[in-house]
Write a structure and sequence with these properties.
heterodimer, A: alpha/beta, ten-stranded mixed beta sheet, two-stranded antiparallel sheet, 21% strand, B: two-stranded antiparallel sheet, 13 helices, 12 strands, 18% strand
Amino acid sequence: MATRIFRSLVPSLARLSGVRTYSREASLVTLIPGDGIGPEISAAVQQIFEAAEVPIEWEIVDVMPVKGPDGRWAIPAKAVESMNKNKIGLKGPLGTPIGKGHMSMNLALRKTFDLYANVRPCMSIDGYKTPYDDVNLVTIRENTEGEYSGIEHTIVDGVVQSIKLITEAASMRVAQFAFDYARNNNRNHVTAVHKANIMRMSDGLFLRCCREVAEQYRDIKFDEMYLDTVCLNMVQDPSAYDVLVMPNLYGDILSDLCAGLVGGLGVTPSGNIGAGGIAIFESVHGTAPDIAGQDKANPTALLLSAVMMLRHMDLKGHASKIETAALNVIRDPDFRTADLGGRATCSQFTSEICRRVRESD
Amino acid sequence: MASVIRHISRLGLNVSENVWCNTARHISSSPVLKQLSVSEPVSKPDGVKTVTLIPGDGVGPELVNSVKDVFKHSGVPVEFEELFVSEVLGQSASVDEIMESFQKNNVGLKGHIESPFENKGELETLNMKIRRGLDLFANVVRCHSIPGLSTKHSNLDLVVIREQTEGEYSSLEHESVTGVVECLKIITRTKSKRIAKFAFDYATKHGRQKVTAVHKANIMKLGDGLFLQSCQEISELYPKIKFESMIIDNCCMQLVSNPHQFDVMVMPNLYGSIVDNVAVGLVGGAGVVPGESYSSEYAIFEPGARHTFSQASGRNVANPTAMLMCSANMLRHLNLEFYAQLIENAVGKVIKMGKVRTRDMGGYATTSEFTRAVTNNIRV
């Protein structure tokens, strides 16, 4: 009780002194547990957040599309409302059921909330050994257009044409976001990845937009590199890159390449930024139906995405606390889950992280 | 000697030329005769072959000079018909002249021609014009680990086959409304089948077990779907070779974590560019991997990863290994197996010994020092 009084006093004291402290009114965050191992890892994340006393309240929703009155499949209105209200979301792995006739889940979410930028920070994890030790970069990918516009036609039998769409509006938007992100996260180098020597008009437009935005951010170093040069150098010396911004297809491939450098999708966080300030953070691995319910899952990807979310919400103190604890536990071979080469269960891994978080207070 | 035998056989002795050549080879490779004669070439042509040479931009000219030095030292019976081709500098040979030269010679050695990205009004680069004009539909890059050069993954041996006349590089772009640009990616069944057949034929010829088709058919359902379907249809004609398919992003992830699972890979244009560069990076970089482009009539040999490395031009620091290996492959293609092996062995020896290494391999040697080391190791 005394702590509650103290805690209610602290914000007012803080307001007087103008210093921001850890305590804050609890913000609401939409949580989409997902399928397969989704519920287990979401529960793990909730447990860890409780141990760290993060001022967040979870609002759990289900995004399985339902057929609306107009016959079209759409995400249920309750989920959409929740997301629009809370602005921040955390999502577990979603499986797209085959044969149901509706579009992929991720595509549905992207279209509903206009998620235009996908951010994937890739950092080498101490304790999970890969041939690449010094990776510390962020890939920012334009997520709405480019080669994935889905506009394809069969011109004559045996000749197919796919359209890659690049617009000035979308390119400016993602370039702006990339530089903002670099500034807010103490990154000082942004590289635009393109193939404007071959696709002169489309990637040329993307590049021009990036250059225009770079003019407004003089404190951040900007350069441009061909996609093949980046690929070549990435596998030889990934430490040379900081923030990479690029159109859809290159972003898809490069972000997965970088994820492979640090250990795969099981340890990679990811965030999607949408128009209107919406941000959905997710784990990008699959639903792993074969190990669902067996307490074998590794919640690292979802946990690191949640840490990214905390940083986005400006709860940097909590974020560092949880991240340090998690990385320390992964470094310890006794507590690694099966996919990282250890023998611990998901619950053991989670409780150990909770213990270290509480200890560090 | 082989030519004499050929004359005799032409007189109607009706013995197959191969038999005579083999006999000649056996006679000349007997220990006694080997010491006496300068080793008889495996098959010596009548006269000298002419080959088209395009130095390219950036460090291309330096690397090509390295090749010329090595050829001169080894007495290779090949003459170069050099053409100056460049898109960034003026006064380049026109596409017609290039095609004429190739129609005469059929084989070429080429450096990379830089494509400027200032939009001068033309959407098609010179490289693409050459490739389309000569119909060089297949690009083959064989990435294998070089003994003596340590990389993060060792013992790799994979082949990347890329369709290089259509796909995303079709140079069909237009701006419908200001600020909205469309770029067309074209996939046709004929070309997809052709490259798939090439890949399977290559696998059969070189004793490979598996062909992997790389695609993104889950997103580009019609385009890459057509490519995948063509590959599957062709794979049924080759029951002895295992066929599998993989999505490009997963493929990239697997290449950096577990590249040993790949054997021969076939894919459309853009993915080919990406996978080429990733695979080349895995075995040692753009300075050590050769590549070749084939059409039904022509063969062009150029470095596997296409970079002009213009920041090093004139500084004598580039690694000539890739270009030398290209020239060795070219000699093999021209049936000059003896000289091909001579050059390959010399380069391999220099790298294995590890004393003379260029910057990209971790040493400090210049291009000319490396070339000299190679020529020192060639004993004719």
